Amino acid sequence: RLRLIPWSWRGFPETSARVAVCLARAKRQPVGVGRWFKAVLIRLQYNGARRLFMRSPGVVTVAWNGLGGSRLAFLLAARDAGLATLACELAPFPGRITLDPRGVNAESVVPREPGFFRDWAGDDALRTGEGWRELGQGLTARASRRADVGQSEAALPEGAFLFCPLQVPSDSQVTLFAGWTGGMAGFLAALGQAAMHLPDGWHLRVKEHPSARESLADALAGLVALGRVVVDNSSDSFAQLAASRGVVTLNSSIGLQAFFHDKPVVVLGEAFFKQAGLVVSVGDQAGLNAAFVGAAGLAFDPAGRARFMNWLDQVYYPRIDPPDFAALKAKLAEARTIRG
Q1: If you ran DSSP here, which 8-state letter would residue 138 be given?
Q2: In angstroms, what CA-CA distances link 174 with 116, 168, 182, 185?
Q3: What is the pTM of this model?
């Protein structure tokens, strides 16, 4: 395990392009002189890591998340040196981990075609049945870091609604994979427009992310003023999900977790589970408006979800509690086959 990424001033033909990509995707975007220093640091790290990897044939390089900044430079250096890589992150299910040779979240190797999962499952009852639901055991709402966002067990009011659990605005899922909405501001604006198209008696219920450091109170106040949006930062997230008639998200893991509650899910951003039959995919404001107009008829393919979730359970997410060493070895072998 490397404690520090090694440095080198000697560059490669790809160095400048790699630095630009890594800097553009860094979670914290420095400005002014700080941006120059960050660029120099990433340059040194990319050059140093690539030279290390050129001396390390056969190695599988592993980094946490790896979507931007120094960690992306580390993975790109390995790939440019001809090595296999694994990006890792906690899975959206208890006791599991993501180990992906291409990347995490929307950049994963998870197939996007429903036909792949039909072929994989065939008539095998273990691959088409309900065993995947055990993945959801132990799922609980995330503990809050903010006094104004909680997980109360108070009863929810009556009425049909769609539930939108917001994500951390600065998270890479929002900054990199928000799709046509462009980010949190665009996402909220799109929700505000679409909410006006909900059927009579319906509302959109929104909750801020318990881990978000910045409050979205001002932006949400504008939505509430429209009269069809309710902000509930107090009630338990999964209780709101369970009581809803559907979930709306950019690409939050709670959209995937909504499968355990057999809820239709509307996805606006880029997500590996944004597939026909699994969710309702919307690619523009008109599509979102139409989804809200037909909120009562939102649907999904239960058999397709079963195949997809069984594949995640049996193939994609290795167990870490207790460790599934056979699955971990399989991931190493897969990484050597799929190189970025």
Answers
A1: T
A2: 28, 7, 8, 10
A3: 0.94
Q: Are 23 and 42 in contact (CB under 8 A)?
A: yes
Per-residue tokens: 215: 């409050």
Cα(303)–Cα(138) distance, integer angstroms: 23
**At 99, is the secondary structure helix, strand, or coil?**
strand
pLDDT digits (tens, 9 = 90+) for 257-272: 999 999 999 999 999 9
Residue type at 308 in one-letter notation: F
- State how far the Cα of 317 lies from the Cα of 314, in Å rounded to an integer: 7
Instruction: Print the SS3 string covering 249-294.
Output: ECCCHHHHHHHHHCCCEEECCCCCCCCECCEEECCCHHHHHHHHHC
Is residue 167 packed enough to be buried (19+ CB in 10 Å), middle (13-18) or exposed (0-12)?
A: buried
| Nearest alpha-carbon partner for 205 in 161, 265, 151, 250 | 161
How much of the chain exceeds pLDDT 90, in percent? 88
Residue 138 has pLDDT above 90, yes or no: no
Q: Which residues contact 246 (CB under 8 A, 6 or more apart)?
A: 162, 163, 263, 264, 265, 266, 295, 298
The Cα–Cα gap between 68 and 60 comes to 19
Burial of 314 (0-12, 13-18, 19+ CB in 10 A): middle
